[in-house]
Automatic annotation (TrEMBL):
Protein name, per record: Dihydropteroate synthase
Membrane-spanning segments: none
GO molecular function: dihydropteroate synthase activity
Pathway(s) served: Cofactor biosynthesis; tetrahydrofolate biosynthesis; 7,8-dihydrofolate from 2-amino-4-hydroxy-6-hydroxymethyl-7,8-dihydropteridine diphosphate and 4-aminobenzoate: step 1/2
Catalytic activity, reaction form: (7,8-dihydropterin-6-yl)methyl diphosphate + 4-aminobenzoate = 7,8-dihydropteroate + diphosphate
Keywords, ordered alphabetically: Folate biosynthesis, Magnesium, Metal-binding, Transferase
SUPFAM superfamilies in the cross-refs: Dihydropteroate synthetase-like
Cofactors that this protein relies on: Mg(2+)
Function: Catalyzes the condensation of para-aminobenzoate (pABA) with 6-hydroxymethyl-7,8-dihydropterin diphosphate (DHPt-PP) to form 7,8-dihydropteroate (H2Pte), the immediate precursor of folate derivatives.
The family this protein is said to belong to: Belongs to the DHPS family.
Entry EC no(s): 2.5.1.15
């Protein structure tokens, strides 16, 4: 891991996005907070809590009040061992929720957490602004074209079907470069690409820790990086605590990511992680963050 001064050379990737109906997002002035909203009955941490529209909207409003910059809406659990969801069911879960949240929070940026191109398309038509693809455009051959057609930011996460690494960190970087190439081939603009190391996906405990120690290498690829480690199993295993009791461990891991140059953190506990990020920004980037 590089020193803070060396890591800071990569910070920030300053980008401004203006979405439909005047929604704006500024990247590069502080760590952005992406709040997690699962409209699923079986997600590992909050399954079944927000699968009704009224509950989902109230939770989105609470996250906005706590300081979320983006609400990430997903309709299919990605926990290990979870059952796949049909396209029709995923769309049924997410599209009405997106529409309701757009009405309740017209200034909020919304991302759709899906690897299915048609879900992404319908979500964007319903008012989402960002695609968050855990398969890095490799799960559906049409996803890159949808991202290019709508000109929206797309988050390319690292994932594999098997942990067949020859050299973990270089392999992760190579896989992400493959996703970037797919994006470019489809016409996705470079400034619309964000990366995610895919912590918890196709990696065991030691491999997750190794990728966390080497996030600066991912930052070095030259794209904004989102870190999504909230309540994940490697934190639970380290602390020997259940998912709902690992906020302090999540904050520690987020701080390490911010110190290495990650610019967006995806979290369940928005209020606590907003404070975490604000303090980390003040220390790492030597700046006044009173805002």
């Amino acid at each position: 891991m590089k020193s803070l001064v060396e890591a800071n050379r990569h910070w920030p990737f300053k980008r401004s996005y203006e979405f439909s109906e005047g929604v704006k997002l500024e990247l590069g002035t502080r760590t952005l907070i992406m709040g997690i909203l699962n409209t699923t009955p079986d997600s590992f941490s909050d399954g079944g809590r927000y699968d009704e529209i009224d509950a989902a909207v109230k939770h989105a409003q609470a996250m906005a009040e706590a300081g979320a910059d983006i609400i990430d809406i997903g309709g299919e659990s990605t926990r290990p061992g979870s059952d796949s969801v049909s396209l029709e069911e995923e769309i049924r879960r997410v599209v009405p929720t997106i529409q309701a949240i757009r009405r309740a929070l017209p200034d909020m940026s919304i991302s759709i957490d899906t690897y299915k191109a048609e879900t992404a398309r319908q979500a964007l038509e319903a008012g989402a602004h960002i695609i968050n693809d855990i398969w890095g455009l490799k799960g559906d051959p049409q996803m890159a074209s949808v991202a290019a057609e709508y000109g929206c930011p797309v988050i390319l996460s690292h994932n594999r079907h098997a942990r067949d690494y020859s050299d973990l960190v270089p392999d992760v970087l190579a896989d992400l470069k493959g996703s970037i190439a797919l994006a470019h081939q489809a016409g996705v603009r470079d400034e619309a690409i964000w990366l995610d190391p895919g912590i918890g996906f196709a990696k065991n405990y030691e491999e997750n820790l190794s990728v966390m120690r080497n996030l600066d290498q991912l930052i070095g690829l030259g794209y904004p990086v989102l870190l999504g480690i909230s309540r994940k199993r490697f934190i639970q295993n380290t602390l020997q605590l259940p998912a709902g009791d690992v906020a302090f461990g999540t904050a520690a891991a987020n701080t390490l990511g911010i110190a290495q140059g990650c610019q967006i953190i995806r979290v369940h506990d928005v209020l606590e992680m907003k404070q975490n990020a604000k303090m980390a920004d003040a220390i790492v980037y030597y700046k006044d963050v009173h805002r």
